[in-house]
Amino acid sequence: MNYENEDNLRLLQLQFIGKILAGFTHEIKNYLAIIKESNGLIEDLMTLGKTAQNDSEQYLEITRSIEEHIEKTNTLFRYLNRFAHRMDSQLATFNLNETLEELIALVTRFANQKKIVIGKDFQEDIPSIYSNPSLVQFIAFSLLNEKIKNLDTNSTITIQTAAADNTVKIRIIPEGNFLEGNDDTPLISYKNLEKLIQQLGGNVLQEKGKETLITLGMHPQ
Amino acid sequence: MPQTKILLVDDEVEFASALAERLELRSYDVKTANNALEALAVIHTHVPDVIILDLKIPGMDGIETLKTIKKIDPTIEVIMLTGHGDVQSVAEGMKSGVFEYIMKPVDIGELTVKIDNAMKKRTKEK
What does the H/E/C string look like for A168-206? Predict the structure, then answer.
């Protein structure tokens, strides 16, 4: 489907949210499975026989793993909650790095499936921008998702941010082999993405198989 | 009945090791693998009776892994691990020779019943 009007854009955004939720729930289920097995293992060790030995180190290791996965679950929920609140208002002042960081956390599962590592190279003191945060995430996701689909396994994608001349720049840099003849339709066509970015007072430069550079205005036009 | 040899294939290392230890405490002989290639290597050196296979493992499509396993030894029974009981994957798995499927998080009692049933079937077929 392509973006021809507002209704279609909403449908595309719903598809985007659906994908994010699918990845999120899968990841949470994995964490819960680890917590459940770890807890079950403690119970088994106590009831099925190993208590005669000094197993305190093993118990500690298991409880640490439970704690770690509860923390990971909590972190992912925090990202999802922030992601959901990005849609509270169409225009808001926000930190681009935080917006991209939560997006990366929520799409990492898709990348992991192909052993693709997503790295961050953010300008730490990047100024806040006044724009449409959920639309910025949708645009970044569309480009990132396309790169994940088109890259071969064991690749990397680095997301850079920088501020210059009253604009902020997002650079998505793929490194690895591109799969030839991948017929997967992108979530949104490049032409329509370009239109959306222009609506946010920006522009996009992309070369097939290479990096993408999105420039956004600090304020909408 | 002889000790059932199990190969547990899941990319979540901690999940696999905790579940493997729980199965060992129930007297199963368990090996683990965290990706498809590792799993195929284990099959050649330590032929399992039952494979517990997460179909969403990195490195190779889960269904392809399943087909390769069945080519190596069609009597090895495969129990498919699934995150969400996704109907399409389950149907595809069943069509490709999966014995049973189980959803994560796993109920250990339910899993051991399925393993024992799979072992009975393999023993009959051998």
Answer: EEEEEEEECCECCCCCCCCCCCHHHHHHHHHHCCCEEEE
